[in-house]
Amino acid sequence: MRSFxxxxxxxxxxxxxxxxxxxxxxxxGATNGSPLTSYIEDGFTxxxxxxxxxxxxxxxxxxxxxxxxxxxxxxxxxxxxxxVTITSGGSLFSFTSFDLASFFWTPIGPPNPPLGTTTYTVTxxxxxxxxxxxxxxxxxxxxxxxxxxxxxxxxxxxxLTSLVISLTTNFENNGANFDxxxxxxxxxxxxxAALPLFATGLAGLGLMARRRRRRKQAx
Length: 219
Fold this sequence. Notes:
Elements: H1 2-13, E1 14-22, E2 38-41, E3 44-48, E4 57-59, E5 68-72, E6 80-87, E7 93-104, E8 117-126, E9 129-139, E10 146-150, E11 162-169, E12 173-188, H2 191-218
Antiparallel strand pairs: 1-12, 2-3, 3-6, 4-5, 5-12, 6-11, 7-10, 7-12, 8-9, 8-11
């Protein structure tokens, strides 16, 4: 019963709010290929946290729709890892999805197959604690090959303080673009509004406990 009460209290203290999509529309005036350091949209801050300067850049020519962010190799002989961290000024939020496109280059001469892969990793944190992590590797899909990466259902409603999206291209890959990061703010319920609901729940639990005791005594 104590665990049930604790869960009820946490539920009453927060409720999911409307979804927010970070589509990087505010980068329309940025120069194509310029390194991203920090970007703010709808109260969320997207910060490049890759160790290598310029690993995440603005892409004005690819997007779903344009612009988007690009992680790409500086030459055709090496890959690159780029990562961004998303925060909401200390407020809680949940992760829903983001759009990803893995672009490939095609070597000269037969058999001329599309090459290149992108490995993505999505990690959510609540404070210093890791709430979840998931990811996989996808092949190059071409300029129109956008995929929506959904949060697994077990993670979709977890409250986060920060989210890290990391992309790694292999040496055969021109780059990977990501766009349309969908998040939902977790809205706290004002305490005066939550307390009557919580008290009603406690009263109901107490009534159930008294009925069980009476039944045992009658038996």
